[in-house]
Amino acid sequence: MILGSGCAGNTAAIYAARANLKPLVVIGHEPGGQLSLTTLVENFPGFPDGIDGPELVENMKKQAENFGAEYIYGTANEADLSKRPFRINVDGEWHETRTLIIASGASARWLGLPNEQKLIGHGVSSCATCDGAFYRDRKIMVIGGGDSAMEEATFLTRFGSEVTLVHRRDQFRASKIMLDRARHNPKIKFLTNTIVDDVYDASKLLVTGVKLQDVLTGRQWDQAVDGFFVAIGHIPNTKPFAGQIDLDPDGYIISKGGARTNVTGVFHAGDVQDRSYRQAVTAAGAGCMAAIEAERFLEAEGH
Ligand code: NAP
């Protein structure tokens, strides 16, 4: 079984199916993963003119299905990894598997603004590496006060005419070095003690501005913006494995080398373990590694 249908899960499915392992892929609560939330992907090798994220991930799924992978809708919400076969509960139904690849990803944390979800892929983004290049000479806003926000704001100065970093406090979680780098960048303007009340304009299906609020005075104002990057952290989808798979304090799987977890026969792939690179191509590579390790594991057992 493979949990997740993003780049990692689909690539694992291509390799596993081609090796005749008959993988069952659980699509998960975000079909297609993070790529399904983006528009043009310009940095996936092999597509000189770019390719739409949803199309790329759908192509991967078709490719896996051509080799015999089976996909089921649903989300794994419970697991018993204490003995073999492993048991996975998908929306109330238990499935058994000899080996498991966890490619359930990490979901971007969003602000929960009234119009935020409607504008994802139309100016609202959670990935500067993916979408920054669309905002050349445009006004960009980044939300957050951690390392991700500093990294994204600094990266986005390559493209934007100006980058405004909005943070709800005046203390930062970001490491000193990354904060200093952002502070010394003349293109980045800091707006602290400020929250976003909404992002516009859902009726045009395009980001044109935001409503901001000073948390100390309650003053609200509108500001024009073209690209709105939310960098307030990710939540790895590992809930069903807590207490069974070794996780770090934020819930990411701790790798035991290659694609291995602490449970023999359970492998990881993609953002569920990787908090550092988070790219479609690295997730695809990790999915390939996990499938090869699963194949070798089953072969050693004589299956
Ligand atoms: P993070 O450190 O948890 O920071 C999240 C930030 O978002 C915090 O400043 C938080 O504000 C803010 N935030 C959370 N929910 C919010 C909300 N609803 N509204 C407004 N603001 C909100 O997350 P991260 O920056 O993604 O980093 C995660 C981990 O990856 C960290 O360990 C980080 O060091 C690491 N990382 C490292 C690098 C690097 O070294 N190159 C790059 C990226 C990430 P408060 O501070 O007020 O809670």
Characterization of this structure:
By secondary structure, this protein is α/β, with parallel strands linked by helices. Helix content is 23%, strand content 25%. It has 6 helices and 20 strands. Helix 1 runs parallel beside helix 2 and helix 1 runs parallel beside helix 6. The model has no long low-confidence stretch (mean pLDDT 96). Residues 111, 144-149, 151, 168-169, 173, 232-233, 275 line the site of NADP nicotinamide-adenine-dinucleotide phosphate (NAP).
For CATH, the homologous superfamily of the largest domain is named as FAD/NAD(P)-binding domain
Query: What is the assembly state of the chains in this entry?
Result: single chain
Strand tally, please?
20
Q: Might you state the CATH topology name of the largest domain?
A: FAD/NAD(P)-binding domain
Topology:
Blueprint: E1 2-3, H1 7-18, E2 24-26, E3 40-41, E4 51-52, H2 53-66, E5 70-72, E6 76-80, E7 86-90, E8 93-97, E9 100-102, E10 106-108, E11 124-125, H3 128-131, E12 139-143, H4 147-156, E13 162-166, H5 176-183, E14 188-191, E15 194-200, E16 209-214, E17 220-224, E18 227-230, E19 234-236, E20 266-268, H6 280-300
Parallel strand pairs: 1-2, 1-9, 2-5, 9-20, 11-18, 12-13, 12-18, 13-14
Antiparallel strand pairs: 3-4, 6-7, 7-8, 10-19, 15-16, 16-17
Helix pairs in contact: 1-2, 1-6, 4-5
Bound molecules: NADP nicotinamide-adenine-dinucleotide phosphate (NAP).
